[in-house]
Design a protein that fits this description.
The structure holds two protein chains of two kinds. Chain A is of the alpha+beta class. Chain A folds into two domains: 73 residues, no CATH class; 72 residues, no CATH class. Chain A is built from five helices and five strands. In chain A, strands 1-5-4-3-2 form a five-stranded antiparallel sheet, covered by helices on one side. In chain A, a hairpin with a 2-residue loop joins strand 3 and strand 4. In chain B, helix 8 links the parallel strand 5 and strand 6. Chain B has two domains: 137 residues, 3-Layer(aba) Sandwich (Rossmann fold); 121 residues, Rossmann fold (3-Layer(aba) Sandwich). Chain B is α/β, with parallel strands linked by helices. Chain B has twelve helices and eight strands. The chains are: A alpha+beta, B alpha/beta. At the A-B interface, strand 3, strand 4 and strand 5 of A face helix 5 and helix 6 of B.
Chain lengths: 191, 315
């Protein structure tokens, strides 16, 4: 087999690998990108759950001693909950009532409370579960995915030849892309 | 006739005596339960990726174990981490079940009320079903396990004045000139029970001030409530430095964790101009403390006695 023929076959293999591995992992790339953006802003929002809070005014004050199952049911009526699971006292002047997917924390001395309902944030919750490896054994799939991203990246570098290839504009763009992280590390004295 | 009557009476009397004797010897349900009882103690802490932190909590169990077991009521002790590393709460409760324990006293080695102590731990052990905890536990891959053994939760560390005495001791160890110093307490903090945390820190600071003559205090947070940012530490120190020459900074954290005592609080101090002169700081923690150990022993003894006498409801 001549060198030319071998190079041609290698190039063909490179293109096919880049194309097919790229297709295969495209959905996961999008999932990880979405989740990456969501988790980047974890301090500004809750990327996993939608937590709705509602202030409740019970119009009267209570003491811990007069909290009975009957009274707890009445608390539930004020937020549209008919049955509760359990209630407990985090402090002497607070009672927390647990419902299905919700809870009500009442300050007894103020007669006011906060009703909190939790639900999963669609798409983001599921994406984050995968990104954070919260699903059992996903860590290994995640490792394979990471290696495959390197394969997609490296094969991508060698698809084009000439002035649009790695030897042409490619090398300058790679260098330019490496600059932002380098600058940040230098500015913050981390190099 | 008389003889026959006497014989019947003797038989009846003997029968009655035997019945009474058997009843008297039969253990009551309470006694029977007590005989089969095997009480264990589980020290539960938050958990950390820091091995230094975890070691201190493992040492806590080592230091209290013989005293807890010496009473003869408690038959075993274990330690569990709520997050990050094994042994987890579920792992240890399964072990208690496997060893035939009937009752487990759970001692949360936590500072004060927080969703961890009030919601997460009870949800993990099957006492509660807090919806938010349920979801977070799934994400964090924290296993829930409802043991066959009955579980009883003791109060947190803030229940007694050991926290006040602990901080006072640590302030006295590093303070140089109380007239010109202000006190800064840095704790983890909590969004849900922010008011309670603030009150606790004010109480601790007031106690220290009354005992030392320090006149000013401030507190800041270093946990999730401030997104693990050091700005709250810096702000608290600056509040004190506005009135005093130097700030005595005390981390009110259960054990030493490099991320908190060194990175977050340390960074907060570094942002203060001339921090070498103006800030007195030792990156220590509440543990190790013999008073905390004594409290653990005492609370275990109290709960064990109640469990044994069945005067405690499962909680």
């Amino acid at each position: 087999m001549s060198t030319n023929s071998f190079t041609r076959k290698l190039r063909r293999f490179n293109i096919v690998t880049h194309r097919d591995v790229g297709y295969f992992f495209s959905a996961l790339v999008i999932v990880y990108c979405l989740s990456g953006i969501a988790l980047n802003h974890i301090n500004e929002w809750n990327p996993d759950f939608i937590i709705t809070k509602e202030e409740v005014d019970l119009k009267q004050t209570f003491t811990r001693e007069n909290v009975t199952p009957e009274l707890v049911k009445q608390f539930g009526n004020s937020v549209g909950e008919t049955t509760y699971k359990v209630y407990d006292f985090p402090t002497n002047h607070q009672v927390k009532v647990y419902y299905q997917d919700a809870s009500l924390l009442i300050n007894l001395t103020e007669g006011k409370g906060v009703y909190e309902r939790i639900s999963r944030r669609p798409i983001f919750y599921q994406s984050n579960v995968l990104h954070r490896n919260s699903a059992p054994a996903w860590k290994w799939a995640s490792d394979v995915f990471a290696v495959m991203l390197i394969v997609i990246n490296v094969t991508g570098l060698f698809i084009l030849k000439g002035k649009h290839g790695l030897g042409g504009r490619g090398k300058w763009l790679i260098a330019a892309g490496a600059l932002p992280p380098l600058i940040v590390l230098i500015i913050n004295g981390m190099l | 006739m008389m003889t026959q009557f006497r014989q019947t009476a003797v038989k009846l009397f003997t029968l009655l005596f035997l019945v009474l004797f058997i009843i008297g010897c039969t253990p009551t349900a309470k006694e029977e339960a007590s005989n089969n009882q095997k009480i264990g103690v589980l020290l539960v802490n938050h958990g950390s990726r820091s091995s230094t932190w975890r070691q201190v909590l493992m040492d806590l169990e080592k230091n209290v174990q013989s005293r807890i077991l010496s009473g003869g009521v408690v038959k075993g002790t274990k330690t569990a981490h709520m997050e990050y590393t094994e042994p987890s709460i579920a792992t240890q409760l399964k072990a208690f079940d496997a060893e035939g324990f009937t009752d487990v006293i759970i001692v949360p080695v936590f500072l004060t009320v927080s969703p961890h102590t009030f919601d997460d731990i009870p949800t993990i052990i099957g006492q509660k079903v807090d919806p938010q905890s349920l979801e977070v536990l799934k994400i964090e891959k924290i296993e829930r396990y409802t043991p066959r053994a009955k579980t009883y939760l003791t109060p947190n560390l803030d229940f007694t004045d050991i926290l006040k005495r602990n901080v006072l001791r640590r302030v006295k160890e590093i303070s140089k000139d109380t007239n010109n110093e202000g006190l800064v307490l840095i704790g983890y903090g909590d969004e849900t029970y922010d008011k309670e945390w603030g009150q606790l820190f004010d109480q601790v600071a007031t106690y220290v001030k009354d005992s030392t003559g320090i006149a000013e205090h401030a507190y800041g947070w270093c946990g999730h409530i401030v997104h693990y940012n050091s700005d709250s530490t810096t702000a608290a120190i600056n509040r004190v430095l506005n009135k005093k020459e130097r700030a005595v900074v005390v981390p009110v954290l259960v054990a030493h964790d490099e991320t908190f005592q060194v990175k977050i609080i340390g960074d907060g101090i570094d942002k203060i101009a001339k921090s070498d002169e103006k800030v007195i700081y030792r990156p220590d923690a509440i543990l190790p403390d013999p008073n905390v150990e004594s409290w653990v022993v005492q609370i275990c003894d109290e709960f064990a006695a109640k469990v044994k006498n069945q005067t405690l409801t499962e909680r």
